[in-house]
Amino acid sequence: MLAGAKFTEEATRTFSLELRRAPAIGILETALTTFGVLILIKGFEANAFSKAVLLGSARAGLVASILVIPLLRRSGLGLPRLVALLHCGAGTGFLTAALFPESLTAFVSGVSLGLFGFALQTPLLTQLYRDNFPETIRGRLFSIIGLVRALASIVFSYLGGRLLGVEIAWYQLLLFIFSGGAFYSAILFSRLPHRGHPVATTRPISAALNSLRENREFRLLIISWMALGMGNLMAMSLFVEYLANPRFGFAMTAATIAVMTGVFPPLAKLVTTYPMGVLFDRVHFYRLRLMLNGVIMVMILIFYLGGGMVTACIGLVLHGISLAGGNVIWSLWVTRVAPAERVAEYMSVHTFMTGLRGTLAPVFAYCLISRISVPSFAAVCTLLVLVGSLLLLPQAWRGDKNERKEPKTS
User: Fold this and answer.
1) Secondary structure letter of residue 59 according to DSSP
2) How many angstroms separate the CA atoms of 175 and 277, rounded?
3) From residue 256, how far is each of 252, 310, 313 by CA, in Å?
4) What band does 208 get if pLDDT is binned at 50, 70 and 90?
5) What does residue 192 show for φ and ψ, rounded to 5 degrees?
6) d(Cα 6, Cα 137) in Å, to the nearest integer?
7) What is the distance between the alpha carbons of residues 54 and 63, in angstroms, rounded to a whole number?
8) Distance from C-alpha of 211 to C-alpha of 230, rounded to nearest angstrom
9) Measured distance CA(11)–CA(14) in Å, rounded
10) Cβ(239)–Cβ(323) under 8 Å?
């Protein structure tokens, strides 16, 4: 798949360790995508506020991730060790929830802390990939790691769903697995090499936000992503709620929902992740983004307006396809517009804005669905994605003459 590619020692070691770490990350992803809200609904019969807090916790971590660059400078730990420490904090959160399984407060607080901790790492991880992976095959390397993560998510969602189908109270075992996965990830990440471009740690937080003013292309992409991301995240926030709540006519069992939301999207993601990595390396970024936006809009309409299990499954498959491309693009696009030593800084702005909309999206989603019909909710989400797409049309039309080479050091 990567014939002819030149690997440095750092790239080889990073790729090897990330492949070993990927199954744990794939399992941990199910805490947000499937089991967190599912346990709140089936195990605690929790209210909308608890669900919104848990769903928003990972995005709140993205908001706070703008602080990790100054933290990197002040801690003196180095990039891999700081990320490992953040993973340990996440593992502690999951462990707390596991030790007090009957407490709703402990569950929401512990799982939210776990998801929050993992989200904080994002800008630093992108910087490390930018420095350690060659530009020409970066998307493909990232996508291969994503394949392993997706496979782990599929297997764990199926087994976890079967477990909860027998006895919902056994979710405590899942929490211990999440905690173990976080600590395992911390150990492997602490061993990752990083001798690339020095991160711009001496710049103040305000300098990161100034990049929006300095770089017109970056500013346009952030605005577009804000609109399309809000629509997509609002729709995603209610996937489990839509299938589990009798109000919407489904009231499916925990096992069925775990398979539908935890197997179908990751399986579609598994099949399409590597092709998306190839497309990222070879296709104009804006055109690829518009293509994925089209998939998202169709997904929202089919899932919420189809009215049956089959159409819901089709919508979730399309969601998995959009995740495959979205994961590669979301994680790596900043490398195309940021100077080498400012990738983490630019990424911290991107994750901050992602976290801001992600924190608000579940709240808006639950507020809207309590006041308007499902078709109206789907229309609002689709319209937001459409607005974000229209903002990118001029750049996509002009082509990729200036887009192929990533910026050099300032």
Assistant:
1) H
2) 32
3) 6, 13, 11
4) low
5) -70, 140
6) 9
7) 15
8) 22
9) 5
10) no
Q: What pTM did the predictor assign?
A: 0.73
Distance of alpha carbon 332 from alpha carbon 343, whole angstroms: 10
Which amino acid makes up residue 217?
E
Q: Which domain holds residue 237?
A: 9-398
* 330 closest CA partner among 132, 129, 157: 129
Q: Tell me the pLDDT tens digit for each residue of 264-285.
A: 887 888 888 888 888 888 877 7
| Length of the chain, in residues | 410
Cα separations in angstroms, 336 against 17, 166, 286: 25, 48, 11
Provide the pLDDT for residue 365: 92
Q: Report how many domains make up the chain.
A: 1
If pLDDT is split at 50, 70 and 90, which confidence band does 401 have?
very low
Q: Is residue 291 part of a domain?
A: yes
Distance of CA 172 to the CA centre of its chain: 24
* Inside any domain, residue 47: yes
Instruction: List Cα–Cα distances, 212 to 215, 353, 389, 395, in angstroms.
Output: 6, 11, 19, 17
The answer to the question of residue 179 being in a domain is yes
First-last CA distance in the chain: 33
CATH code of the domain containing 209: 1.20.1250.20
Rounded Cα distance between 296 and 265, Å, is: 13
Q: What angle do CA 401, 407, 409 make, to 5 degrees?
A: 155
Residue 10 — pLDDT band, cuts 50, 70, 90? confident
Q: Is residue 307 in a domain?
A: yes
